[in-house]
Amino acid sequence: MTGPTMRRRTARPGFTAIEMLIVVVVIGLMAAAVMPRISRVVAEQRIRSLQGAVASDLELAFALANREHKPVTVTYNTTTSVLAITDRISSAVLKTRYLGRNGSFSTTTVTFAPTAGITIFPAGLASGAITLTVSNGTFTRTVSATRAGQVTKS
Q: Domain containing 88 — which CATH number?
């Protein structure tokens, strides 16, 4: 033996810490670029869900008036942000829906017309048409019901 034996360094399979760091940074940049779009889609979906729920509530009000043979009223309280369906004769609350900012739908603006609400009679006719508009600041949806009970979303 003429000298110390030299060990040959063999490459092991796997990734270095630098390569992993680069991958994490690239994924972070991609996520940061997509986040504003995702939050906008989530906000739009919340308003669409609320629109569907309100349309369902209005259809329910017409069905209850017909089924129970009693007039019902649909009102919106701007102070409590509650849409209410009540029995006009007994004043019993049949259904409520919170439409405020702290709810699961995160609305910022709710417009209800007529402001006094409507009465739906057992024959299926209402005292007037109703329009409810919900918004989260950037996205707005409307639910309307005719006097005859046709509920539309737009």
A: 3.55.40.10
